[in-house]
């Protein structure tokens, strides 16, 4: 769920990096 948000928003994924990267792979 977060992976999509982190990729779509980019901002959150870039700022957090942890959630976007971890979820994106998981």
List keywords for this structure.
26 residues, mainly alpha, flat
Number of domains: 1
Number of E-state strands: 0
**Order of helical and strand elements:** HHH
N- to C-terminal separation? 10 Å
Parts with pLDDT < 50 across at least 5 consecutive residues: none
The description of the largest β-sheet is: none
State which percent range the strand residues make up.
under 5%
The level of helicity is over 70%
Coarse structural class: mainly alpha
Number of helices: 3
The 3D shape can be described as flat
Instruction: Round the Cα radius of gyration to an integer and report it.
Output: 7 Å
What is the average per-residue confidence, as pLDDT, rounded to a whole number?
53
Structural notes for this entry:
With 26 residues, the chain is mostly helical. The chain has one domain. Helix content is 85%, strand content 0%. The protein has helices at 2-9, 11-16, 18-25. Helix 1 (2-9) crosses helix 3. It is flat and about 20 Å long. The model has no long low-confidence stretch (mean pLDDT 53).
